[in-house]
């Protein structure tokens, strides 16, 4: 991060045409990644014969097979998700295979998130969430936020490199708070974390979009698309956490 901070904000050496071409490639890859993530999630949620799982108190619940597998073998799914991310990161500079790795990772992301989406919508169907359709509304809000924030940077061409240190610090603070939240079991604390998370990854969208414009050494389109995808996924999850919070009765 320190090496990046020294170069970011230096004088531009790329022509406007090369910057525009680079941005088109990044956003094309990013859009493709979102498409594959949605396809992975929809496949996990709707394909296959339902599997019956018995929860606490002997309550039977019908689940899509991939969702049931994810709930029963969440450690395996987590390892697969992390492995796919590191593979996409490691291969991002290798032409051809980097795009395959990126789309493979985003597809696995959709499958990995499917149990969370299923549970949120299940709770919503029982009237137990703040929002009647938290998955849909979190998706729409994420799309609006990303379009607005990224579009603002592209139109204004403002340099948001000054956010780098604060965002790095905020990431580690919120990660520590999330770990602490596992032991506190406080709904108010979880909502506070989610609210800060929304602000944090909104800042990352500003920062990474600005980086694509102003970092003279930036030519890693797959890496940039991967960063934007991670920002959007995390923003979506924090918004989903807020919208699917328990409704007070």
TrEMBL record:
This is Bax inhibitor-1/YccA family protein. Pfam families: Bax1-I. Its main location: membrane. PANTHER family: BAX INHIBITOR-RELATED (PTHR23291), MODULATOR OF FTSH PROTEASE YCCA (PTHR23291:SF115). The chain crosses the membrane at residues 26-47, 67-87, 99-118, 138-155, 162-183, 189-207, 228-244. It is a multi-pass membrane protein. InterPro entries: Bax_inhibitor_1-related. It is found in: Cell membrane. It comes from Pendulispora rubella. Belongs to the BI1 family. CDD domains: BI-1-like_bacterial. It comes from the Bacteria. Keywords: Cell membrane, Membrane, Transmembrane, Transmembrane helix.
């Amino acid at each position: 991060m320190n090496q990046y901070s020294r170069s970011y904000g230096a004088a531009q050496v790329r022509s406007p045409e090369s910057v525009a071409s680079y941005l088109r490639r990044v956003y094309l890859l990013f859009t493709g990644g979102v498409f594959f993530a949605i396809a992975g999630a929809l496949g996990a949620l709707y394909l296959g014969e339902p599997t019956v799982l018995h929860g606490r108190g002997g309550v039977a619940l019908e689940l899509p097979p991939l969702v049931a597998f994810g709930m029963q073998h969440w450690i395996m799914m987590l390892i697969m998700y992390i492995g796919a991310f590191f593979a996409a990161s490691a291969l991002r500079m290798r032409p051809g295979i980097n795009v395959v790795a990126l789309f493979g990772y985003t597809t696995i992301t959709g499958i990995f998130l499917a149990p969370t989406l299923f549970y949120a919508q299940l709770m919503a169907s029982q009237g137990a969430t703040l929002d009647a359709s938290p998955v849909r509304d979190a998706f729409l809000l994420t799309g609006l936020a990303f379009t607005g924030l990224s579009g603002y940077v592209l139109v204004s061409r403002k340099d948001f490199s000054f956010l780098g240190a604060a965002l790095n610090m905020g990431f580690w603070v919120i990660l520590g708070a999330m770990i602490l939240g596992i032991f506190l079991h406080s709904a108010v604390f979880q909502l506070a974390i989610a609210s800060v998370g929304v602000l944090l990854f909104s800042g990352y969208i500003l920062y990474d979009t600005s980086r694509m414009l102003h970092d003279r050494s930036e030519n890693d389109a797959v890496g940039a698309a991967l960063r934007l995808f991670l920002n959007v996924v995390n923003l979506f999850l924090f918004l989903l956490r807020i919208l699917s919070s328990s409704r007070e009765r």
